[in-house]
Amino acid sequence: MDQLIELTKIGFGSTFAFYIKVHSFHWNVEGPDFYEFHKLFQKIYEEVYDAVDPYAENVRKLGGYIPTSYHNLSMLTKIEDENRVLNKEAMIEELIVDSQRMQIILKKNYDAAEQEGQHGLSNFLAERMDAHRKHEWFLRASIK
Fold this sequence. Notes:
With 144 residues, the protein is mainly alpha-helical. It has five helices and no strands. The chain is globular, with a radius of gyration of 15 Å. The protein starts with a helix and ends with a helix. The model has no long low-confidence stretch (mean pLDDT 97).
């Protein structure tokens, strides 16, 4: 169970970091199609944000705790920070890579939940994987 708790905390931290990144891209995107990408990024960050609290609750249901500081929370994430203001194309490419990374993180968490018989958690994680596949699709389709 300790491994499942740790993987769930990593998934939570990575979800939170992904949310922060896409929200900052929403604020900083520029260009002639600003509004389209501003709204796309908003659609994604709102969907991801809606998963943050349920993810934290899943950690707690397993008997784990959520870090109480941003520093400790940031140590859990597998999503790399972006410290620069990127152009729109680079933002999209980075979010595609991060969506793929999230799917890998979620799949590891899903497999551990299934192994432990935590089917409520695995159902939640399956929905999160599907959401990130959809984000990836939307992002890819927007740059064709």
